[in-house]
Structure of Precorrin-3B C(17)-methyltransferase:
Amino acid sequence: MSWLKIIGLGPGADSLRTPEASAALAEATDIIGYGPYVARVPHAPGQRRHETDNRQELERARHALALAAEGARVAVVSSGDAGVFAMASAVFEALEGGPAAWRALDVAVLPGLSAMFAAAARLGAPLGHDFCALSLSDNLKPWPLVEQRLRAAAGAGFVIALYNPISRARPWQLGRAFAMLREMLPGDVPVAFATAVSRPEEAIAIQPLAEADPARADMRTLVMIGTAQSRLVPRGAGQRPWLYAPRSARSP
Amino acid sequence: MSWLKIIGLGPGADSLRTPEASAALAEATDIIGYGPYVARVPHAPGQRRHETDNRQELERARHALALAAEGARVAVVSSGDAGVFAMASAVFEALEGGPAAWRALDVAVLPGLSAMFAAAARLGAPLGHDFCALSLSDNLKPWPLVEQRLRAAAGAGFVIALYNPISRARPWQLGRAFAMLREMLPGDVPVAFATAVSRPEEAIAIQPLAEADPARADMRTLVMIGTAQSRLVPRGAGQRPWLYAPRSARSP
């Protein structure tokens, strides 16, 4: 039986990958994805690996569907959850625009742990009340829409998790976002930078919004912006405070 | 060594619980949580189980901290991710308000797969672009704030995942939310009802917003409201269409 499974690998550590995902990866004949994600998949004998560039999502999705149509068991892999700013949407776009026969393929999405939850767990419980997830990339949407969404979210008191905060090609967007948010939120609202959580190079910092420094972020960073109701709980010397959102919310 | 771990069990199926969570559960001396969640934890010899009512979050959190302070290895369990409308915030609230000694405890949060990702995976990729998660319960926030957040999210084009959509004590809120959203969004925006995903009683339905029926939801349901840009991809007879959010977004 051929199939196509779109698999979220989780944030990095093997111990955060679901058993469901691990079982499917072991049975796949073909692993397809962005190189660094494919490299995270344990090797299985005879398995073919197709490592592609980060930008070629739609071509990669069509390739995966074509392989499954030829009889392969294809795993398309993403970091985190494949449905969150990752490959799942690209596969369904390709499927919608492709040959009718593709719609009869055995396609499934296997969920994974998205970066914001791994980051939140390290920090405490910053997402403990209403929150939103927003890609700061303006590659696939106009920048004014990003600003509109940031304003709507901050104005209504959502905690904001920012994916794709910065890259070499998008150096100014995060600073612009912080500047906008400083006009709407108190300067002591906590901003967390969580980089490569659960991987060896993990790094975490919390800064007040007034001083939040975009240079803290890179492509592996999840940036989380709290609200005026976010709480910091000091711990012992040398330990980061816990950051959490109270269960009860007041109007912002 | 005593510790307190706040653990997300995932949406239900064992195959969606992280290996990290399973390992900690096996080593705990005490499991604490809402009865149906504690019942999901595999039995380990000599382990004590403390099943409490759903409403007593803060008391349960204090109990857990007190046990850890006495030397126990305590697992506080939640369904999904413990940081999403679940026990993690309650533990940090209890910790903040409790004895200073509690701040020296070895506390950690182990992330889990939240219901909206399990639901999204079954549906396709409905969260493929910006989205928010909102509890529809007005037990811990004023209802006007819920309405404000729904309006902000829908107005800015976020996909909306509604947690706690309905209960015996909160029968009208979901209908009110649909009525509000009908004034803002086209009637054909897809609304998904995903109940008990990955458990034996799993049930999924998609309806257009114009006809969305609150009676489809119960306490185990995650309700997801798409946007005018959400796509439905028909499949073969007897199969639900795929639902996905395109990677590119236009202004709503």
In short: Chain B has a mean pLDDT of 96. Chain B has two domains: 3-113, 116-244. The domain at 3-113 of chain B is CATH 3.40.1010.10 (Cobalt-precorrin-4 Transmethylase; domain 1).
